[in-house]
Structures are given as structure tokens and as C-alpha cells.
Amino acid sequence: MVLRSLRYGETSRIVTLFTRAHGKVSAMAKGARETKSPFGSSLEPFCVASYVFYHRTGRDLQFLKSGWTEREYSALWEDAERFLHGAALLEFLDRILLEEEPVPEIYDLAQRALAVLTRAPRERLRELFRAFQLRAAAHLGYAPMLDRCLHCARGLPEGEAEMTEVWVFRATEGGALCPNCASGGEGGVRIRPRALRRIRTMALGRGEGFGEADLVGDRGGASLVRDSAAPSPLWIAALERIVEEYLHFHIERYHGLRSLRIRMDEMGAATA
Amino acid sequence: MEYSSKHLEDLIERLAKLPSIGKKTALRLAFHLLKVPAEEALELARAIERVRTDVVSCEMCGNIAETQPCYLCADPSRDHAFLCVVEQPGDVIAIERSGVFHGLYHVLRGSLSPLDGIGPDDLRIRDLVTRVDEGGYREIIVATNPTAQGEATAHYLNDLLRDKVRLTRIARGLPIGADLELSDQITLARAIEGRKEI
Ligand SMILES: [Zn+2]
Ligand SMILES: [Zn+2]
């Protein structure tokens, strides 16, 4: 799949591909913008494709010979919010992946995530995207500790305490702290154990997947993918802050995402 | 100093900043400009100056213009009931060349591209909405590029305008990924003639 594409010269493109076998690869695609291009739609965002390229080790830019599209997540073009989150997914991958280091788990995860973004309720897109980020980070070896206190190893409480205790997520330390251990330190996001448990489910998933079955919300096991009830803004805000702070701190090359700073709804609101 | 003249070095550096011109080409161009008759080189400098001072963006359509409004917007023989939305001034040239469209244009100056930080506010979309509100157009033809960004822009415009006016999208005769600007006249003419409701 294509993460990024730049026009080059009169008719060509320089593309950054994410491949299953070779990881992130930069390549020159000659004639890619012509009507009779040997690449068809394969260099468009949200197309999963097969490519033929000449690979030479140590060369910064490989030569792309041809490409053909296997699957097109074109539903992502048809809705501004989906388009935005799809673009954010590509931008995120481009930021966190290193050149020519294969990470097939993240490749498979990204494909499933694109499919999920095409059909999940719009209200759930922000959560789903954050879940995707957490899982991708976990595959790179950055999984936050969320099931117990980082200091005293006390587990998340069950029952009523789940909704009354206030824990703290501290990105700089890499996870959650119980009320006792959090009291000494500075900073962090105050959060209920129940929300922490939910983020943990989002970060780990159930088994390998990133699909309908394993994105479980908090209301009676409703799936994030099917449940169209809008999540509370407070929960979204806490989740986004936690994910952003965590990624900023642990993945140096992550600097937040441009795509997510764009507001697609403004124009509609302004004219409505 | 790498070169024997500070001015020469300055020129080479400026040329090298132009798209698809590398350091080597910049060097060749600079020496070429030194070799040709002075008047020829100065004429180039003056052409650059003229294009930057006399060429404006048409307040109506956003196209490159020398008058306000541009000659296309001002032309009474054009069909003012049809408005064609394109990404770039180059697309207007391509469609004009195809000869099948005789209405007015609206140049967005780009397409929705979250990866580049370009959202609706960075394009001339607000101006388009105002134009449609004031305009009395019979049909808006969305001729953004057949790329993911172009399609996303078309769908966005459809959501925004479909209650106000009839919107059509140029046909999929153009392969996905191609540049409107680079497509041949016949393919482009067919795409415009075969347009459909979004
Ligand atoms: Zn503790
Ligand atoms: Zn004009």
C-alpha cells in the first residue's frame, strides 16, 4: 500500500510504499501520472496492491516497474471523516516505520484497520483509530502497562471501585499508577480503572484481530465496529490524550499527525 | 566561495530551488544564461517580473488572470448556467482544449489532502458555496482529478451542495491515478460528456 506520494518531474511520482515483505520502501514510479500508466490505481492511497520493483540494497530510491490493485478501500474517499482517518492511518505508519524493516504484523493490522474504517459507524472512528495506533505501537515493542500499578503492582480494582477510584496514566513512566503511588509524582491523565481496562482491551485486542469481534466497548460488550452510539466526549478526550502523550514519549519519530488537525465539519457547519 | 562570482552562486542556488531542477541542471542553466546575448537573458528576467506583478487570481473563478474578472468569466458568449469545478488552473487549459465545455469554471487550487495538512478551509470551497448561493446555476460539474484526493473532494462538495443544485461528476473514463492535465483531449472530452450524478 502507498503511504505517501509526491509528484516528480512532468509525469512521475516518488512513492513511499509499505510492503509486507520489505517494510517501508521509497521508489520512483516513472510515468505514473499519465493516462496509460503501468501502475493503474495501485499508487493511490487506500489501494492494496502488488508491485514489481527492482531492488538494490543500499539505494535510497528503488525503481518501481509496475503495480496492480488487489483491493480498493474506495469507501474511504466517499466520506470526509473516513477519508481523514484513513489518511491519518497512512501518515501514522509513515512516521513510525523504519525504511526496509519488515513488520508483517503491522502490515496485516493496517489492512484490517482500513477495512474496519470503511464500515464502522462514523461516531466510532476516532476510538478505532486510537485502538489501531496502540496496537501498532505494541507490535513495535511499545505496549503501555495498563492492568496493574507500575510501582506497587496492585491490579485494577473490580466492582464498585472500578468507577470510584482515580488512577493516573503517566506516559513518561509507561503506564498506569494506583491512587497511592500516583500521589507523589507530577503530571499524567487522571482516569477511572474501568476506562483503563477498556483502553487495555483496545491495545491488546482479542487474539490477533482488529475486527468486529475484538473491539469491545463498555456497554455490555457492544462492539466498537457495530455500535453506533456516540461515545462520551470526555472518554474520547482522555483516550486521545493518553495515546498522544504515550506515543510522543516513546516513539521519538512520532510528532503527532497533521491529518487529525483538519476539521472537515467546519465548512458544513458554517453553511448549514 | 565555490564559484568565482557571488552573483553566479546566488543564481545557481535560486535555480536549483525550482521543481525538478537539480544542482547540475542549475549550473548548466546559469552558464547558458551567461553565454546567450544579454538581451535574451534580461527578457527572461522581465517575463518573470511581469508574470508576478501583472498576473492575478480571478476573484470569481480563482483562475490565473490578467484582468479582474478573467476573460472567461467576463465572456458573455459562455453558458453561465454551467459551472465546472477543477483543482488547478492547468485543468482549465486541458478542458478548454477538449472543446466540449462552454460554461464557467471554479478553480479550487488543490484537493483535500489531509496528509499535506490541506483541509476544506485551505481550498476555495467557501467561495464556491457563495457562488452557488448567488449563482442560479443549472449544473455543477465536478472535474477534480480521478485520484483518491480528487474523489474525496468531489464527495465532500456533493455533501455540501447537493441540496442547493444539481451536481455531476465527470465519468470514470479517466483511469484512477491519472492527472487531468496530462490526459488526452478525446479521453477528457468523453469523460465530460459522460458525466453522471454523484
Ligand atoms: Zn501502586
Ligand atoms: Zn474568472
Description:
The complex is a heterodimer of chains A (272) and B (198). Chain A has 272 residues and is of the alpha+beta class. Chain A has helices at 80-96, 104-119, 125-139, 161-164, 179-182, 193-204, 233-250, 265-271; strands at 2-8, 12-19, 23-29, 47-54, 62-72, 167-170, 175-177, 189-191. Chain A has 8 helices and 8 strands. Chain A has a 5-stranded mixed sheet with strand order 1-2-3-5-4. In chain A, strand 2 (12-19) and strand 3 (23-29) form a beta hairpin. In chain A, helix 1 (80-96) packs parallel to helix 3 (125-139), helix 3 (125-139) crosses helix 6 (193-204) and helix 3 (125-139) runs parallel beside helix 7 (233-250). With 198 residues, chain B is an alpha/beta fold. Chain B folds into 2 domains: 6-54, RecR Domain 1 (Helicase, Ruva Protein, domain 3); 64-197, Dna Topoisomerase Vi A Subunit, Chain: A, domain 2 (3-Layer(aba) Sandwich), CATH 3.40.1360. Chain B contains 8 helices and 7 strands. In chain B, the strands form 2 sheets. A 5-stranded mixed sheet of chain B has the order 4-3-5-6-7. In chain B, strands 1-2 form a two-stranded antiparallel sheet. In chain B, helix 1 (6-16) crosses helix 2 and helix 5 (89-98) crosses helix 8. Chain A binds chain B through residues 4, 8-11, 32-37, 39-47, 74, 76-80, 83-84, 87-88, 90-91, 258-264, 266-268, 270-271, and chain B through 20, 112-121, 125-126, 129, 147-149, 151-152, 155-156, 159-160, 174-179, 182-184, 187. The complex binds zinc ion (2 copies). One zinc ion (ZN) binds at residues 149, 151-152, 154, 177-178, 180-181 of chain A. One zinc ion (ZN) binds next to helix 5 of chain A.
Class of secondary structure makeup of chain A: alpha+beta
The main sheet of chain B orders its strands as 4-3-5-6-7
Binned strand content of chain B: 5-15%
What is the C-alpha radius of gyration of chain B, as a whole number of Å? 20 Å
Q: Count helical runs of chain B.
A: 8
- Biggest interface, and residues per chain? A-B, 44 and 33 residues
Q: What composes the largest sheet of chain A?
A: 5 strands, mixed
Which architecture of the largest domain in chain B does the CATH hierarchy give at level 2?
A: 3-Layer(aba) Sandwich
Percentage of residues in helical conformation of chain B: 40-55%
Order of helices and strands of chain B: HHHEEHEHEHEHEHE
Write the element-wise H/E pattern of chain A from the N-terminal end onward.
EEEEEHHHHEEHEHHH
| Ions and ligands | zinc ion
* Beta-strand content of chain A: 15-25%
What would you call the shape of chain B?
elongated
Helix content of chain A: 25-40%
